[in-house]
């Protein structure tokens, strides 16, 4: 079963003075602004690293939900943050690290079981498999 989703970007101008928009097939983003200033200067708008972080956090969390279910567990809540590091490497830029920070409430799970299942989700998440960057995870079981 192959699934294909679409997104698009539009750009006008040079790197620093140009402006772009990003749109998604679902309409969740519809001509949402991005540019050099939103990526490097803190101006309001999105950037590729933020979008990658959102995709990774979402994918990992869904993968964990699947893996918990296979272990007979259901989360009351799973909250994941992804920190994507963009470094200057060899005269260019590269995403070098992604850190996932998870807080989960999973009735009936032990801390050891939770750690094992979260590691499996990190390794098995389709978005994780895309990256050559180092992916780290802190997982905290609460409740």
Question: How is the secondary structure organized here?
Answer:
Blueprint lengths: L6 E6 L6 E6 L7 E3 L1 H5 L7 H23 L6 E13 L2 E14 L5 H14 L9 E9 L1
Parallel strand pairs: 5-6
Antiparallel strand pairs: 1-2, 2-3, 4-5
Helix pairs in contact: 2-3
Main attributes of the structure:
143 residues; alpha+beta; three-stranded antiparallel sheet; three-stranded mixed sheet; 36% strand
Termini separation: 37 Å
Instruction: Give me the Rg, rounded.
Output: 18 Å
Structure class: alpha+beta
Strand arrangement in the largest pleated sheet:
1-2-3
Strand content: 35-45%
Overview of the structural elements:
The protein has 143 residues and is an alpha+beta fold. It contains 3 helices and 6 strands. The protein has helices at residues 36-40, 48-70, 111-124; strands at residues 7-12, 19-24, 32-34, 77-89, 92-105, 134-142. The chain has a 3-stranded antiparallel sheet with strand order 1-2-3. Strands 4-5-6 form a 3-stranded mixed sheet. α2 (48-70) packs across α3. It is elongated and about 55 Å long. The mean pLDDT is 94.
Summarize the structure.
The chain has 143 residues and is α+β, with helices and mostly antiparallel strands. The chain is built from three helices and six strands, in the order E-E-E-H-H-E-E-H-E.
